């Protein structure tokens, strides 16, 4: 362990009296902290992260006007969290068929555990379970709005979402900061989705947190004949490391799991997926894209494991990366582990720059070079944004991408 990592653990250990799960903290200590020699951390540098104070944030409330100013503008059931604490008075009083209860201390075992997931659970003092009952169909989205108002401190949240047999739901996770922070903050988040037999879920995540270190873990457990669509948009943050782990436990389940990451400046965005095919006749499709600018770093690591008895599995994973400068970089590692016969599995990776011939063609039609580059970049992103079924959410994501590209030279 490096000296910096040892200092971090010492700082976190000083917060021991604030931990809700001391047993989980013992697991974190035995796991050890990340370092550059670890294969999984080779390209994600934590030097600046180590300099944080690691003081746990306190429960705070904000005005309802600020909540409305930060929340996505759409017709939804709104559930608000400030610094990781559930705020029922700022949330919708009517949640349709959904219910929410406290489950402090009742954490599910992670599909693919790692140090930051354990740290997050150690300090998650206010955990909730959200439930959509059997055969209930909710087309109105449930928006989980996470607002950080803890400059220079750390916030942690934990949720379990149960979509029961035959139910259908739409869930959106939104992560934002209350204000512009001069001092960076550490944000940990974990959400566990249990999708029962014959149920379906559309899931979206949008992260817009300037001057923040965002470490998150989403787990999806799929039963028989389930359908899950998950789209993650990492749009703003100093360092983002997002894990999505999935386990297909029942036959004939379908999972699509996509992401779009837009690091710029000196930011690092690290997107990781881990998928276990454990049952027969299941399908999964993954498309992950990075648009990397300036001196930013993009990291993708994807693993698909097909169990011995998971015959007739169809698992596809693609990673496509667009580099907009000579000084940015992308590091990609898609992986397959197949222990079954009679399966159809593949992975692929492409990395490149904007097509000069296409730019020249557009210029010959009177479009400026800058505009041509922007059009091509937006087209690259829209292969994923077009998959968003919630129109107001789609408008927000596209507008943010457009703004992001307008702020830099491309």
Overview of the molecule:
This protein has seven helices and 19 strands. With 410 residues, the protein is an alpha/beta fold. It has one domain. Helix content is 19%, strand content 40%. Helix 6 runs antiparallel to helix 7.
The main sheet comes to: 10 strands, mixed
Percent of residues in helical segments? 10-25%
Specify the number of helices: 7
Strand order of the largest sheet: 2-1-5-7-9-11-13-15-17-19
State the low-pLDDT regions, or none: none
Supply database-style keywords.
410 residues; alpha/beta
Concise description?
With 410 residues, the chain is an alpha/beta fold. It has helices spanning 3-13, 22-31, 64-70, 115-123, 356-364, 369-385, 391-406, and strands at 77-82, 85-86, 99-102, 128-132, 142-148, 154-163, 168-177, 185-195, 200-208, 212-222, 227-236, 239-248, 254-261, 268-277, 283-292, 297-306, 314-323, 329-338, 344-352.
What's the helix and strand layout?
Layout: H1 3-13, H2 22-31, H3 64-70, E1 77-82, E2 85-86, E3 99-102, H4 115-123, E4 128-132, E5 142-148, E6 154-163, E7 168-177, E8 185-195, E9 200-208, E10 212-222, E11 227-236, E12 239-248, E13 254-261, E14 268-277, E15 283-292, E16 297-306, E17 314-323, E18 329-338, E19 344-352, H5 356-364, H6 369-385, H7 391-406
Parallel strand pairs: 1-5, 4-6, 5-7, 6-8, 7-9, 8-10, 9-11, 10-12, 11-13, 12-14, 13-15, 14-16, 15-17, 16-18, 17-19
Antiparallel strand pairs: 1-2, 3-4
